[in-house]
Specification:
With 351 residues, the protein is of the alpha/beta class. The chain contains 14 helices and twelve strands. It is globular, with a radius of gyration of 21 Å.
């Protein structure tokens, strides 16, 4: 029997006229940095296409040249649509142009679809978001909902995950979403290493609020950075709000307000999220008993661990560990992976 040929997960980015270069580069940067920890082999292949090969206008003082036309979409396992400021009737009337509709027709059923910022208008106009939760940049959320009443628009979150269709808010939220996909496909360790290479925070939960009209601390004001670093070294210990506030020499009231301004979460919500991430890493990378995982992650008991992991990931710790143990070393994970809404979704890299 001939050996099975490995094919990495192909991500195709659709570049439309008026695109934002920053958003265009996010999938290439994040997915391009994701490597198999055992072999160093890239876990994704990232390619770019346009509605036709050739020049694509951007909103900057330079344009880009795209070698591939829309036929490339037929080969994609994941399609990413970044933001564009020149969507024409897609934005103004909620309908696809004939050229764009013909391009999207190349996408195979079952392909994972991802939008960054106003790229969600394209997915919505094509009907992919009907009846699904979705988000976009907060400044466009009202218009987005008005234009696409069948979409369940959530204007306050960083990104949404509905299994095979994912959307993000603007700019940096696209980084968060791509890291979330890497984490969903290959686990926390790979996602954290990718984030480390890219020098960005390894995880911001999709339900975290977009930063809308929030006061930004003045440079001379103390932040909560030291307290967060202090917490990360002590997740396994009982943590009191008074102890965190003491690290910044603030009152509890001032610290709580400043923490929410800077992170978009309460201190308790943030700590729970960090403990879930610690538990994920331990479940993926060790054979520690659940009671030990619970203590190391700061949940205390296996029952508390189960409660919080189930709430965050939609599956029990045992099921989560089994999912990652089912994959052969050095290969993409098999079976199904948990998504934050509690559904099980196909592992994005199984081919």
């Amino acid at each position: 029997m001939e050996p099975r040929v490995h094919r990495v997960h192909r991500v195709v980015v659709l570049a439309l006229a008026g695109l934002l270069p920053f958003e265009l580069g996010i999938p290439h940067r994040i997915f391009g940095r994701a490597k198999d920890p055992a072999t160093g082999r890239p876990l994704y292949e990232i390619l770019t296409c346009g509605l036709a090969p050739g020049r694509v206008l951007t909103d900057a003082d330079f344009d880009i040249h795209v070698e591939h036309g829309p036929e490339l979409l037929a080969t994609a396992d994941t399609v990413v649509v970044p933001a564009s400021y020149e969507l024409g009737p897609v934005h103004s009337e909620g309908r696809l142009t004939p050229e764009l509709a013909a391009a999207l027709a190349h996408i195979r059923p079952g392909t994972r679809l991802v939008s960054i910022c106003t790229g969600g208008y394209v997915l919505a106009a094509a009907g992919y978001l009907d009846g699904r939760r979705a988000t976009t940049h907060w400044s466009a959320a009202g218009h987005f909902q008005q234009t696409f009443p069948a979409v369940l628009v959530d204007p306050d979150v960083l990104y949404t995950d509905d299994g095979d269709v994912l959307t993000s808010a603007g700019v940096a939220a696209g980084i968060d979403l791509c890291l979330h996909i890497v984490r969903r496909d290959h686990g926390a360790a790979v996602a954290n290493q990718t984030a480390r290479y890219t020098v960005v925070p390894p995880h911001r939960d999709g339900g975290q609020a977009q930063f809308i009209d929030r006061p930004v601390p003045e440079p001379e004001q103390a932040s909560t950075t030291a307290a967060r670093a202090w917490v990360l070294d002590r997740l396994h210990e009982p943590l009191r709000l008074t102890d965190l506030a003491r690290q910044e020499a603030m009152s509890v009231r001032t610290f709580t307000r400043r923490f929410r301004e800077e992170s978009g979460l309460s201190p308790g919500e943030w700590i729970t999220g960090q403990r879930v991430e610690r538990a994920r890493a331990l479940l993926e990378q060790t054979e520690l008993p659940m009671e030990h995982v619970a203590r190391e992650a700061g949940f205390g008991t296996a029952q508390s661990l189960r409660k919080h992991v189930q709430a965050a990931l939609g599956v029990s710790p045992t099921a989560y560990r089994r999912t990652f143990r089912a994959a052969a070393p050095g290969s993409a994970f098999g079976g199904t992976l948990p998504s934050p809404d509690g559904t099980s979704v196909p592992a994005g890299s199984v081919h």
